[in-house]
Amino acid sequence: MLKKLTKEQLHKKFKQLFNSIVGVDEQQQAALAMKAYQVNINEVKYYVGRAQVSDIDEILDIERAVYDGATPWNKQAFTSELHRKHDRLYLVIRKNDQLLAFIGSSYSRATQDMHITNVAVLPAWQRRGIGSFLLNVIIDKARQINAQQVSLEVRVSNTQAQRVYHELGFESQGISAGYYFGDHEDALKMALIFNEEEK
């Protein structure tokens, strides 16, 4: 005779089945789910939280401010990314309800790579440790889910960003020729590779 399951048990079984099909594990879900909190960066208080669809217009404003009026990613691309909560982590930083910075990342279980898709800070708020803080949050999350590395691309002309990445332990991994849409500038591929002791 079959055992009758409660609604909660059925939900748990369905969730386990779904996660096994999609390729999500509980540890990864717990690491990528995060609640908003306040943080002190260089003695200034900010609010950090997971990016929401309602943040996209402000995220695009940051892109325009950083990339001379251009938006490398459009609203549709960000919407698609933010709906993928099982393998994407996008964070925003606010002060006095103004969105100052954001970072995006995607995780591949197949390659065990946490890839930083984009990071940008409003020009007036750069050089205050905000970008480094966001990068360190993603690095910590990557360690929590036992990623092998954190990777990213950066314009070859953006030596300031490259310096920050080097300070955080990223190393050059070669060049992607003509990587960037529009001007076809080359990208420097960089990665922070964890050794076993760092995980």
From TrEMBL:
PROSITE patterns: GNAT
A Pfam family: Acetyltransf_1
Annotated ranges, domain N-acetyltransferase: 39-195
Highest taxon listed in the record's lineage: Bacteria
Record SUPFAM superfamilies: Acyl-CoA N-acyltransferases (Nat) (SSF55729)
Protein name: N-acetyltransferase domain-containing protein
Lineage: Bacteria, Bacillati, Bacillota, Bacilli, Lactobacillales
